Sequence to fold (146 residues):
Amino acid sequence: MDLSKLAWKAAGPAMDAHTLIYRATRGRVGHKVPGAPPMLLLDHVGAKSGRKRTSPLGYFKDGDDPVIVASKGGHPRHPGWYHNLMANPDTEIQLGSEQRPVHARTATPEERARLWPRAVETYRGYGGYQEKTDRVIPLVILERRP
Fold:
């Protein structure tokens, strides 16, 4: 098994623990992580499996809307949660202690051009991830829904 696959396998239990602690403390622990952007919890439904999943993800805000980055560390493929959101865009997030219903949509090319510098300002690693891959890393805007 190559090291990148091993790293992704090891990340799963760490993400599960992060999610558990974030939920248990209503975001008091896990929303802010040293050296990382602020974190939210994204609920999403498997596009194929129909299973409900939760992913802790870094975000930045555009007005009131959180924006998440589908970087997967510069991997050649989009993260699974991105495919799930495109299939099932109406979902919920936990932003600190707030539970919020949202509609997920990929930023237009114009929005991405405006928002990408903010993403890299929030977390410098995103710039390196984009250089590492041939795909355009999508930005996903999480718009509040009633």
Residues 3-24 form the longest helix (22 residues).
